Amino acid sequence: MTVRLPKGEDKNISDSGDMARIMQKVLWRQNRHHRNKEYFWTIGIGPTNDIDYIELVTIGTRNRNILAPVDVFSLAVSKKCTKVIFCHNHPSGKLEPSKSDLKFTDEMERAGAILGITMLDHIIITETDYISIQ
Predict the structure, then answer these.
(1) Rounded to an integer, what distance in angstroms lies between the CA atom of residue 43 and that of residue 127?
(2) CATH fold group of domain 2-132
(3) Where are the domains of the chain?
(4) What would the pLDDT profile of 100-129 be if each residue is shown by its tens digit?
(5) Among 81, 87, 102, 112, fewest CB within 10 Å belongs to which?
(6) Residue 95: how many CB atoms within 10 A of its CB?
(7) Residue 58 phi, psi (nearest 5)
(8) What residues are paired with 83 via a beta bridge?
(9) What is the pTM of this model?
């Protein structure tokens, strides 16, 4: 599902902090109950570092999403987007990436390389903070 950019946000990003701030606003649009689930988004980035799209790929459970490369890269491939950023939230409020987060990031980076898509970053957000795990 494609997600709208929050009002007043510039489509051009310069760093992980810009992307995290935007994605926290996207997360805040969910009601309180739904923010207790783990969301995973893929963000397509254009040649001039503009956001081409934000796609909500899945809504998981309180601490898990199950994704395959086809889920993560399908919109990027269809739009011929060659750069992506991944973002997911940790409802627990803890920013430290899990072993599965790190493994997933590595696997998706390799899958993207096969497709000719560069993974620029993988950001974990909470309602108030973020960390880049790339």
Answers:
(1) 18
(2) Cytidine Deaminase; domain 2 (3.40.140)
(3) 2-132
(4) 999 999 999 999 999 999 999 999 999 889
(5) 102
(6) 14
(7) -160, 155
(8) 45, 118
(9) 0.89
